[in-house]
Input
Amino acid sequence: MATIDGLPPLREVIATHGLSARKALGQNFLLDLNLTAKIARQAGDLTGMDVLEVGPGPGGLTRGLLAEGARRVLAVEKDPRCLPALAEIADAYPGRLDVVEGDALAINPLDRLTPPIAICANLPYNVGTELLVRWLTPKAWPPVWDSLTLMFQKEVAQRIVAKPGDKAYGRLAVLAQWRCDAQIVLHLPPEAFTPPPKVSSAVVHLRALPAPRFEADPKVLERVVAAGFNQRRKMLRASLKGLSPDIEDHLTAVGIAPTERAERVSVEGFCALARRLG
Output
C-alpha cells in the first residue's frame, strides 16, 4: 500500500520522526499497511463520507481510510510528536485530511464533520471505553454518525457483543445492542503491534439503528442497568431495591423473576423494566 500513496513504510516514518510508542498515552502502533487497510475496509464503503479517527499515531489507519475513498478524515491526536508525520499524509491527500491536536475526551470533533459520518479508530486503550459510551449516549437518537469501527482489547470487544448468560454480558452490551447492530469483524494478535501489548485485540463494527430496538427512557434505562450490574452477583430484587420499594412487583409485572440476576436479563427485559419504572 505504500506504493499507492507514495509515502514511506511506517517503520521508516516512526524512525524518521522518533515516534516510540508511549505507554502513558495508551499507544500501540500498527505498522502493517495491509492490515490498517483491512481495518479501514471493515467500516464499509467510505466514499462520500467524513471519517473521524481518534489517536492516529503515525497514520497507518489514516492512510488506509484515505486510500479506501473517505471524502475527508478528521484525525484527533494528543501526541504532538505525531503531527509532522500526519502533515506529510495531509500533503499527499490535499484537502482530505484535517488534523486536530488535542484530547478527544475534551473536545467534540463531531461538530467539525459533515454527514454522513463514520468513526473508525484504533483507540488508545486508556480512553476507548469512555469514548464508546459517549458516542452511544448522545442527547438525541439517531446520532450524527452512521457507524463505529473501533479497535479494543479483545476482552472489551467481547463485552460489547456479549449475549445474556455470557460472563462478558453487562452494561456495555446492553448500551450498545439497544441502539446498534454490533459484531466483532477482525481479531488481531499482540504481535501485530509495536510494542506488542500483553493482550489480544479485536475490531468491533457498530451500525446505528434508526431507532432503539425497544422503547425506553435512556436515563431510566441507564439507572436500571447500572444498578443491576453494579452488584451483578445479587438477585435483582436486592440489587434494584434502591430504585423502588415495590421492585419485586415491577419485576414480576414485566416477566422477570425477582430472583434472577442481571447477567441473564435481555436488552428487551431491561427496557420493559425501565418503561415500568419510568
